[in-house]
Amino acid sequence: MVTLVIDGEKIAVPAGTTVLEAAQAAGSYIPTLCYHPDLSAFGGCRVCMVDVNGKFVEACRTRVEGGEVVVTDSPALMELRRSLVEMVLINHNQDCQTCVRNSDCVLQEVTAYAGVTKERMARLRRDTSKIPTDTANPFFDFDYTRCVLCGICVRTCREINGAGAIDFAHRSHATRISPLGGWPSVESICESCGECMERCPTGALARKNSQVPAREVKTICPYCGTGCGLYLGVRGNKIVGARGDRENPVNRGQLCVKGRFGHDFVGHPDRLKTPLIKKEGKFMEASWDEALTLIVAKIKEAQERYGPEALGGLSSTRIANEDNYLFQKLLRSLGTNSIDCSARL
Predict the structure, then answer these.
(1) What residues make up the domain containing 225?
(2) Fewer CB within 10 Å, N side or C side of the chain?
(3) pLDDT, tens digit, for every residue of 238-258?
(4) Do 8 and 63 reside in the same domain of the chain?
(5) Is residue 79 in some structural domain?
(6) Model-level pTM?
(7) SS (H, E, C) the chain
């Protein structure tokens, strides 16, 4: 442990802790746009600049050695941060009311803290990106007019998902986040996991047809036997979103494309709610007792006519491993080893 002074308060933190982490532990707010606790430090926005022993440094990248005197807020720092945020805002979409991240936007929070005023912004020549929104992805859109070039999506794709589907492209005022060759995201190696969207601090990456949930329900993803924890956003009787449970030891908040976006089947009108039995060439609704009785009869008929090896079973990856185990035990008790499951793919 080493000690330092932050805004006049002496605290002790583990050696190697960043100034930003130490300040957060001490309850001092330091604004930042490009920092995320899940990712490596980038230091691109410079908004987290603080005064350490009389020098301005990036709080997210400067590690504590002991004995530092840190000032997180001063007239000089406020002026610097205000100027940095204004440089972001002059190229940013001004329509915040219709943004899906309105009132839940890091840029709004930082702008308010930096003290940006209408009068100061009026002196600047404002513009927005002319690049059209990438709507090719079936799950989320990329609105370049709301991108602040924080690089969080780039690092997320590389460090968490391991895909590296996007990166910084071009230079100077033409810099943008782009897949290789400027292709639409759907034509790149993007896996549509949505991890970048989940960490985007603005509305640049936004879920299609986004709705604010009325409540959240903690549950387990139904798509495979991995057991990823998630929170389903619910509005009325409809699922409007999903996010990973960071406390779940299986996935630690991460989700694949199915776990994050694949829940439309729950309320789909074509979803089966009762067993169906084909009668006279048409599927008819039946009770569970009727369906199970028919299954038993067909199994006995196949065993008697063709032998037990004529039977086969297809299991599901959506059920628990224990259920799959019981299913294969059932088939083997009937005398067959012909069992398969998509989990082997």
Answers:
(1) 215-267
(2) C
(3) 999 999 999 999 999 999 999
(4) yes
(5) no
(6) 0.84
(7) CEEEEECCEEEEECCCCEHHHHHHHHCCCCCCCCCCCCCCCCCCCCCCEEEECCEEEECCCCECCCCCEEECCCHHHHHHHHHHHHHHHCCCCCCCCCCCCCCCCHHHHHHHHHCCCHHHHHCCCCCCCCCCCECCCCCEEECHHHCCCCCHHHHHHHHHCCCCCEEEECCHHHCEEEEHHHCCHHHCCCCCCCHHHHHCCCCCEEECCCCCCCEEEEEECCCCCCCCEEEEEEECCEEEEEEECCCCCCCCCCCCHHHHHCCHHHHCCCCCCCCEEEECCEEEECCHHHHHHHHHHHHHHHHHHHCHHHCCEEECCCCCHHHHHHHHHHHHHCCCCCEEEHHHC
